[in-house]
Amino acid sequence: MEGKTVKQKIEKDEHGNQILQNGFHSTHFVDENINGDICVSDVNAYMVVVVGKTGKVRFRYYGTSAGMVNPFQPKQIVTDSMGQIIVADNNNACLHILHQNGQFLRCVDNCGLEKPCGLSVDSEGRLWVGCPQSGNVKVIQYMK
Question: What is the DSSP string of 53-110?
């Protein structure tokens, strides 16, 4: 990135612990929500981390609130116009929807998702979900 300047580098939380797993095989997906938080799914650490504008970790989510059988495996992450955080859970073929403050709201698991990966929210509040194993893209109206 020639000619670009790093504005902020955040590596550790307030306790001195690494915020994200690093290394060659580590995979992260990133999005910013409406209040400026950076939302990251850390595939290898089986968690979502949300970092505020100041660089402080606001919360971590490990998927346990959804009560799923298989371990939480967060993949793609996206936020919507209400600040909700939507995470594709590859192992459980579902989507976790979190409030912008980290509270688990609901799980979308009744629409035949197969290893959901790609996510996008359009201007009408519909969620577009890519399922690469089947080659399908599903459009879900998840907000009322």
Answer: TTS-EEEEE-SGGG--SSPP-EEEEEE-TT--EEEEETTTTEEEEE-TTS-EEEEE-S
pLDDT tens-place string over residues 109-138: 888 888 888 899 998 889 999 887 788 898
Q: Is 117 inside a domain boundary?
A: yes
Contacts (Cβ under 8 Å, ≥6 apart) of 85: 31, 33, 39, 48, 50, 77, 78, 79, 97, 98, 99, 100
45: Cα within 13 Å, side-chain hemisphere: 18
Confirm whether pTM is higher than 0.85: yes
**What CATH code is carried by the domain that includes residue 94?**
2.120.10.30
Domain-located, residue 79: yes
